[in-house]
Amino acid sequence: MNERCKGLGGYLVEINTRAEQTFMRHLMYRSRATKEIVYTGLTDLGQEGHFYYYHSKKPMAGAYFKRRQPDNYKGIEHCTNLMRWGLNDLDCHTNARYICEVPVR
Ligand SMILES: [Ca+2]
Ligand SMILES: [Ca+2]
User: Fold this and answer.
1) pLDDT tens profile 81-100
2) How far is the CA of 77 from the centre of ligand 2 (A)?
3) Counting beta carbons within 10 angstroms of the beta carbon of residue 92, is it exposed (0 to 12), middle (13 to 18) or buried (19 or more)?
4) How far is the CA of 63 from the centre of ligand 1 (A)?
5) Which residues does 104 contact at the CB level (< 8 Å), separation at least 6?
6) 20 to 30 A Cα–Cα from 29, which one of 2, 18, 85, 98?
7) Every domain of the chain and the residues it spans
8) What digits encode the pLDDT tens for the residues 26-43?
9) What are the φ and ψ backbone dihedral angles of 19, each rounded to 5 degrees?
10) What positions does the domain C-type lectin occupy (predicted)?
11) 102 C-alpha to center of ligand 2: Å?
12) Is the domain 2-100 a CATH 3.50.50.60 member?
């Protein structure tokens, strides 16, 4: 999915502030994607429990998880999806949509 974002000149979205996360969530709900699973660019693929932005490799800052997440359910949840009350970690092989962030030139 990050490759698809690269094709657009961007990368998987990096949520850097609570306001940005709220904005993303509103976009998602406005597009009626409420039932959709939508990936963000946060992952802990490098080291379990240490979430970072897939594109910039910087540690997670500003974004927030929902209650009781991340739970690394079944030990295979290393990607994240945007939910109403915060982020959730989920299996990176989940068939889902994703948000690309494209810098303005
Ligand atoms: Ca994990
Ligand atoms: Ca989870």
Assistant:
1) 999 899 999 999 999 999 99
2) 6
3) middle
4) 16
5) none
6) 2
7) 2-100
8) 888 887 766 789 999 999
9) -65, -40
10) 1-101
11) 27
12) no
